[in-house]
Write a structure and sequence with these properties.
This protein has four helices and no strands. It has one domain. It starts with a helix and ends with a helix. With 72 residues, the chain is mostly helical.
Length: 72
């Protein structure tokens, strides 16, 4: 397993944990760190291909609300 793959797997776990804990600040910090380590394109692919399908409708709505600065 490559280092990039290990970073991506670890990042996924931390992003999901932050979402489930309803902690937008931690989510944003991990997201920024992931972009620094992996690059923007790779993190976008990771989110779209792997994270979104793991989320239920409530978690997806909360993620969109965070992005918009709204509290649910």
């Amino acid at each position: 397993m490559t280092l990039e793959t290990r970073i991506a797997l670890f990042l996924m776990g931390e992003l999901v944990a932050a979402l489930r804990a309803n902690d937008p600040d931690t989510f944003k910090r991990w997201l920024c760190g992931g972009v620094e380590d992996l690059g923007k394109t790779e993190v976008e692919e990771l989110l779209l291909d792997w994270l979104v399908p793991l989320l239920n409708a409530v978690e997806r709505d909360r993620l969109v609300a965070w992005h918009l600065g709204v509290s649910l």
